[in-house]
Specification:
single chain, 135 residues, mainly alpha, Alpha-Beta Plaits, 3-stranded antiparallel β-sheet, 3 strands
């Protein structure tokens, strides 16, 4: 999940704090990790639902091997990233909703307008997209 600016500090300034919180969470919960934690940085872009839309971003990505228990780990790390306005990778499992996502994207309303224009009857919507983007 990409972390955002908060309290005047950029994501790049805050990634170490967030990463240390993830490390503490893993230790406190006695989770056995079987995959490395990925950290990377990107420049801002102007793509409406990009994790880097309108801001430089620091990513802390977590993974587990297929069929491994993930729920406690993913939910715990996502809760930490929520404190930083984290934006999930759209192709990865996350627990966000339209209510939690909308304030994190400066172009959310623009995206929604395009979505309504291209699919006014919601033919391409399903339970998952309704959770992510609203009705």
């Amino acid at each position: 999940m990409a972390a955002c600016q908060q309290d005047g500090a950029s994501a790049i300034d805050r990634y170490e704090e967030a990463l240390n919180r993830v490390r503490k969470f893993v230790t406190d919960e006695q989770l056995l990790l079987n995959f490395p934690v990925e950290v990377r940085f990107t420049a801002p872009d102007d793509i409406p639902l990009s994790t880097a839309s309108g801001r430089a971003s620091a990513y802390i990505a977590i993974h587990v091997f297929q069929k491994m228990e993930y729920d406690r780990y993913f939910r715990g790390v996502e809760a930490i990233m929520n404190d930083y306005g984290g934006r999930p990778h759209w192709g990865k499992l996350h627990f966000q909703s339209a209510e939690t996502l909308a304030p994190r994207y400066p172009e959310w309303d623009r995206f929604q307008a395009v979505r309504r224009r291209l699919d006014p009857e919601g033919r391409f919507a399903n339970a998952y997209t309704r959770r992510l983007f609203g009705s």
